[in-house]
Structure formats: structure tokens, C-alpha cells
Amino acid sequence: MNVKWRLTLRLVGWLACFGLILLSLSGAVFYWIIIQLAEIQAERDFQTAGLSQLVDTVRAEGKNWTFDPKLLEAIEKTDGWLQRIDDNGKVTDAFFTPPDVPNSYDPGELSDYLLQHRPFPYQLAIWIQIKNGITHTLIYGKTNQGNGFLQQLAETGKRSGVNILLPGEMLEKLKKQKAWLQLLAADGVEIASLNKPEQAISRFSVPEMVLRSIYPDRYGAEIHTKYNLDTRETWVLSTPLPGYGPGEQPVMAPEVQVLAIGIGALVIAAMLLLLVMSYWFGNRIGSPVVHVLNWLRLLDKGQFREPANSLGKPKSLNRSGRRKSKYHVYGDVIHSLESLSGTLRRNEQLQKETEQLRDEWIAGVSHDLKTPLSSIKGYAHMLETDTYDWTTNEVRSFAKVILEKSSHMDALINDLTLTYHLRSGGEAPSKEVVEMNNYLNEVLLETAQHPLYREGGIRFVPAVEPVYLTIYKPWFQRIVDNLVANAFLHNRKGTTLTVSLQMQEAGGVIITFSDNGEGMNEQTADRLFERYFRGIDSESRSEGTGLGMAISKALVEALGAKIELHTHIGEGTSIHISWPGNEEI
What we know:
It is found in: Membrane. This protein is of the alpha+beta class.
């Protein structure tokens, strides 16, 4: 799966989670709003809304019934009481019941009280509902204290102009309740009042009177009315609800307040959720993108590495060295950047090595050609001068030296070119499978024809069985020539060189060059394969360039083998060239 689809699936998944969380929050908020509205309605008209909720929430615990404590608290706030009776009219549960309320009812008795055929000191409401096969009959009663007090005020109160006169006891009770009394004409306009606050209204329309009677919590006061049919006047008693002063009204209706709180909480929760999701989304998606951009900036500056933290570890890895989860979606991109950084590092290193080799090659050419070129230049000046008349033999002698030095320069340039090629990682032009017993014998016989080598100075010990290697013949010939020359030219006369070919048990091949010469000290052995260690000068014979052993080591390694030296003063020298088992054919 590529980055596009991984990123798409991640976004869809995160948005789906965000939607589910927001939907859950909305459901919780609307459930709370419904509960609060039901409680408000129960407080306003418990006999209509509260009794049904009581039956819905009732639970059986053994032989007893448990009712919702909040609904029972609402009954107490309304100065009401509650009874549950069985099919025989006996009370099984009672809450806040006054002493004068019966503990059992006959069928006709309860009907008369409910239909007000017989006087009863309380206003009654009955709710009958079947739940789980059980009939629940609830009786809700409420004391009409307000109506009783208003009746007394209407009977004892006297109008005096725009004022109402009351006996001292009634007036004191009215002020204690922070209530006020108004007398309205037939058109609802106030004609007299007592203890009325400034904020109270002075005119009541029919809808206004009804709304204030049914929804006291909207207006902050409960009102009771008594209408005089003869005079068409209305006595109005207004009592502030708990938490409100005389004439104060709530800023908004309870229903609106609940909706405002619920919707406001939902909006705030959604914004907080969106903030959290945005931060999380930015961290999960944006942080890796910034990481990749910083990585590209480092590459642009020539720093071919991944951005690291203060401890020097790549930011995309955790403490255990594994890729952090937020970077998984960009795994392909990060892998490509790692590959690119590695390639650029290798190219940079290769460029440095190439430049170093180039500088060394130029320096080597300049240094190595200077000595023979000085000799050629000197003899050329001698031939050019008019001061002397050179004989024919002298001219030929000068020409011979110039030719030798020119040949030496040509060989030196070829060796330097080969050295540069090998150190640059160059490979052989072509290789072939060769049977080494016959081929190595032929090479040694050819090398032994050199006029400076003693006749019979080279002994060859072939392997018992045929040995096959994949080699490049010109390079192998050069290796043998250089090792043989090193044995004869840097040892005393009469030195014998023994070359042996062996097959190892593991399948490898070893070629050993052993002489019985003087051997080498430790310093010479350590630096044998360095360039120009033995050195030459303009008067030395032109049999070497000073690069032979360094070239031999490079050629051996280019053919997939390794070269080792074993020597001691007075015990001769042994050089081993070994191919591992997987190199044998």
C-alpha cells in the first residue's frame, strides 16, 4: 500500500473517530437536556409530569418499593406529599404525608375526595399505571396554603384609594413572605396594591395572567388569584420563588437556560475536541512532513543524514531503535530518503577518494618523472653545447643513457596508470579459467630467461592434482615477475627461489614464493608493499620503477586473493598468495 492510500485510510479513520466522539457527546448532552426539561416540568406540574416519572423509575427491593430520590425531593419542594395504595385501598408507601391524611381509602371515599364531592384539605391528583404486570396507584396531594392566605386577605382587606388596608397580623405575615397584594379591575388594570415592588407589573392581560399562574419559574414569582363575580374584581397575591427578590425575573426561561447550557457545553466540547484532534492530527501528520522537509534541507546543505534529536539519534526512531508509529504512514518516503542519503554519502566519499587519488597520481607523476627527465635534460644540454666536440662513441653513450631513461619513464608512466586504475577499484578487462600447474610453470620458465637471473635459480613444486583458478593472465604474469625480481635483485648472488602450488583442505589455493636469501628486518617487512620504499636514483639500473611490490599487492587483491609476508633476518623470505575456497573453479 502506497503513501496515498495509507494517508487516506488514516484520515478517514480519524475523521470517523472524531464523528463518533462528537455524536456521543451530542447524545449525552441531549439526554441531559431531556432530563432537565422533565424535572422542570415536574416541578411546575408534578401531578401531570412527575407521577408518570415516579412509576417509570420505581424499583422493587424485596417487598419494598424504591422511588427516585430526585422526584421525591421535587415533591417536598412543592409542599406536597405522596402515597402509594394497593388494590384494596391500603397505603403501602407514604412520603411527607401530614397527620390528617388517611392511611386507607374506600373506593367511594377516594372518588368523592378526588371529584370534590366531599371537602378535603388538600388538592389531589391520582396516577394509575401498570408496570411489569403490577398496578401502581399513586396519590399526590398539595396544600393550598397560598389560596387559603389569599382568601383571608380578600376577606379582611379594605381598599382605600390606591392602597389596601390590612389588619396588623395579616400585614406582618405578608411582609414576612416578601409577597405583595394587588386588586385588579375587570380589564386587568391595577386599582390598588400593598407592598408591591417597583418592578412588578400593574396590568394583566388574560394570557399574561394564565402564563404567570402556570409557569411561575419564568417570572420568578408564584401568584394566586381570587375573582369576585359580583364586582368583577380580581385579588392577586404574588410570592417570590426561592432565590429571587420581590419583582425580580429570571434572565431567561428555565427551558431556554437548559438549552443554552446544553448547547453551549456541546459547542465548547466540540471546539476542545477539535483543538485536541487538530493538535493530534498535526503531530501525527504534520510532524513527519516537517521532519522530511528538514531532512531535505540538510541534504541541500550537504549533510547527508537524518535530522537527529539532542542525543544524536534520528528523530523518527524510538529508544529501542524502531520506527515511531506516526512515521509509518511515510515509511516509503523515509526509506527513499535513507537510501538517497546513503548514496550521497557514498558518492561524496568516492569523490573525495577520487580527488585524493588524482592529486596523488599527479604528484607521483611529477616526482617520479623528474629524476630521469633531469638526466635526459642534462645529456641533451651536453650534446647541444659548442664548447666540446663529442666523439661518436661518446654520443652513442649519451644516446644509450637517454634511451634507458626514456624507457624507464615509459615504464613508470604505465605503472602509475595501473596503480591509479587499481586504487580506483578497477577490475580486470577479462578473466579466464586456467589450470595453474602448467600455466605457472610456463610463466616461471619465461621469467627465468631474464639475463640478470642465475640459471637454475628458480624451482617449481606443482600441486599433486590439477588446480583451476579464474585469473587475468597479464596481471598474473606481472605479479610473478615482480615477486621473482624482488627475490633476486635484493638478495646476494646464488639465492634460490622455490615456487610451490598447493590445494588446501577447504578448497582454497596457495602459491608460495620462498627464497633462501638474507631476509628482512621488521621495518622493511612492514613497508615492503609501499611505493618507492627501496627507491632508485638516476644512476640505478632501469630494471624497476619502485612500484613493483605495491602493484603486486594491488593486483593480487584485484584477482580476489590476499598476499602475506613471512621473513626473518638470515632465514630468507616467504610470500604467500592465497585464494579462498569459493574462488577455485
